[in-house]
Structure formats: structure tokens, C-alpha cells
Amino acid sequence: MGIYEEIAANKRRSAVLIFFFFVLVIFLGFLIGFFYGSSYFGIGLAVFIGIIYFLFSYYGGSGAILTMTRAKEATKPQYTHLINTVEGLAIAAGLPKPPKVYVIDDSALNAFATGRSPEHSSVTVTTGLLEKMNRLELEGVLAHELSHIKNYDIRVMMLASVMVGLTVLLSDFLLRSFLWGGRGRDRDSNQLTVVFIIVGLALAILSPLIGECIKLAISRKREFLADSSGALLTRYPKGLADALKKIKDDPDPLVDHANRATAHLFISTPFRKEKKSFMRNLFSTHPPIEERIAKLEKM
Questions:
Q1: Range of the structural domain that residue 157 is part of
Q2: Are strands 111-117 and 120-126 parallel, antiparallel or unpaired?
Q3: Residues 6 or more apart in contact with residue 30 via CB below 8 angstroms
Q4: 137 flagged as catalytic
Q5: Catalytic residue among 87, 145, 212, 297, which?
Q6: How many domains does the chain contain in total?
């Protein structure tokens, strides 16, 4: 599959996954409304909480992430080459303005992009990445992160995180309603009510898990998309492929101030490597790095 086909395919997959996310949230809201006698109440509750979550994440999420990871803004002359490289790639990518550049003092080889839009975005790299990568490899990594910005991945993943938080809240509300009682307990015990109660109880328990799986699936697809777009931007897929090889062989990939909430942002998992298994792959924030390298080498 060529670069353009890879980009188009990943966009379609991400759109489908986001659609299923919306369906899950709306159905949870509907079940809450059914239990309390008004579907409008449940769906309205889901929309209201979703708006609050989204506004907080939209305007304050990136600042909170930079604070959590202890990123410091890069300045000249110490990081002149890094800043100039980001600015050059931003012009090549057609971004309206270069993203701000931050550095984390950490020996791990990693980087991430965040922000709410291309006009309000930033790129962060570790000092370990700057020390170990050559010019072409660094350009490959930065092109990958700028592709996240150009493709609005930063907004898509922010939306996915909001939806996960929303499903957790709604499922918890639904579960407590079943346990503590409500208008639904006073209904006649007809078959439809019994079916909705069984489905609702199952979703109340499983929806946080389902939501997290969908978010991680979106994250994995967006990584493939950013790899393809980054290779298209530099016209040199080998640069990013070689960088990923170095990242894969990093003896200490742990980013000290990373956590499960920010792990999906990084170019590679910021935690120590673990043994492969179906369950670990299902809950992984990133696709297998060997698969990403293989795709790049075929471009």
C-alpha cells in the first residue's frame, strides 16, 4: 500500500471508531433515560456532561499535559537546531504557524505533540532523543509529530479521551441507578423492560472497558497515519524507520513523568517493554513498533 492509500485507509478507520464511540455514549444516555422514565433526560445528561468535559480538555488539556511531563520551553541558542528544524518542517507541512517547542530532561528516546488545533499546538522531545538521533532521524520524528498536528490527531485523541471519561461517568451513574433503585423499578415487569435492564447492567459494567479499547484502537490507527504523513512530508521514510529502530532498542524507554493518561501521545510507549500477548496488544497505546518499521521500509 502506498503512502496516500495508507493515509486514506487510516482516516476511514479512525472515523468508524469515533462513530462507534458516539453510539456507545448516546446508548448509555438512552438507557439512563429509559430507567428514569425519559430518554430525553438521559441523552441530555450525556450531552451536558460531554460538553463540560470537552471544554475543560479543549482549553486546559495541553497545558496540564506539559506540566505533568515537566516539559520546559526550548530556547535559543541551546536548542537552535531543534527550533529551526521544527519551523522548517512546519512551513513544508503548510501549518498556519510553527508549534511551540518543549524539551523534557530525560534519557529515554521519545517525543509527543499536543494542543487543540494547528494554531495552538506544541511539540515536545526528550533530551535523550536529541542526543541519540542524527539529523535525518530527528527530522523523521519531528515530521511524525507535526503530522499529528496537521491531521488534527491531537484533537481526535482529545475527543477520544473525553469520550472515555464520559462513558466511565455515565456507566457509573447507570450502575448506581440499578443498585440503588429508581423509577425503572416501579415499571411493570414486561419483557422489554427486562431486556433493557439486562443490557443496561451489562453495559454499565463493560462500557468503561469498551471505551478504553476504542480509544486505544484509535490511538494505534493514528500512529500509522502519522508515520505515513511524516514520511510524505520528509520524502524520506528511512529517516523515521531508523529512528524507530533506535527507539525500539532503547535500553531504558521509561519516561519518568509519563503516566497512563498521557501514554498515547508519545511516538512510542513511554513504559518499559513487556512481553507480547493478545491482551497486552489489545490494551496497547501503540501498534507494534516492528510493524511500523516494516510499513515505512516498504514505502
A1: 3-298
A2: antiparallel
A3: 39, 42, 43
A4: no
A5: 145
A6: 1
